[in-house]
Every structure is written in C-alpha cells, then in structure tokens.
C-alpha cells in the first residue's frame, strides 16, 4: 500500500508540474493562432477543455477569419 511518504508527495508535485508544462506548451501556440486569426487570444484557453478543444480547432479551421477580412479591406 502507499502511505504518506516523501516519494508519494514528490510524484504528486511532479505530476502537477508536468501538467503545467504541457498546458503551457499547448496553450501558448493556440493563443497566438487565435490572435493571428483575428480572434481574442484568450479563446486559446478553451484548448484545455476536453471536447471543446476539438470544436475550437474546427471553428478556427473552417470559419472566416476576421484578420483576413480586415486585410482584404485594407487593399
């Protein structure tokens, strides 16, 4: 059985640290993609929500980007 040992708490801390690193590695690029597409960068936080992340990816992939509309109007 697992008792309250230093090894167990180290694994727990390591788990949350690893999850934080992965979240940063995923959220930062999606944040930038949303900004470049013309949406709020904070929309990138939805990538952390299961099933909503798939909807977000399809939304970004198949919607008309406000940034491209703005660029077309500038020309």
Automatic annotation (TrEMBL):
Q: Is Transmembrane set as a keyword in this record?
A: yes
**What is the name of this protein?**
Putative transmembrane protein
Task: Write out the transmembrane intervals.
Answer: 15-34, 41-61
* Organism field: Marinomonas primoryensis
Q: In its keyword annotation, does this UniProt entry include Transmembrane?
A: yes
Write the record's keywords in alphabetical order, separated by commas: Membrane, Transmembrane, Transmembrane helix
């Amino acid at each position: 059985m697992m008792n309250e040992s230093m090894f167990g708490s180290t694994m727990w801390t390591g788990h949350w640290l690893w999850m934080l690193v992965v979240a940063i590695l995923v959220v930062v690029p999606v944040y930038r993609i949303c900004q470049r597409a013309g949406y709020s960068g904070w929309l990138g936080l939805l990538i952390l929500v299961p099933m909503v992340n798939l909807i977000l990816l399809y939304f970004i992939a198949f919607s008309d980007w406000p940034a491209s509309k703005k660029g077309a109007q500038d020309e």
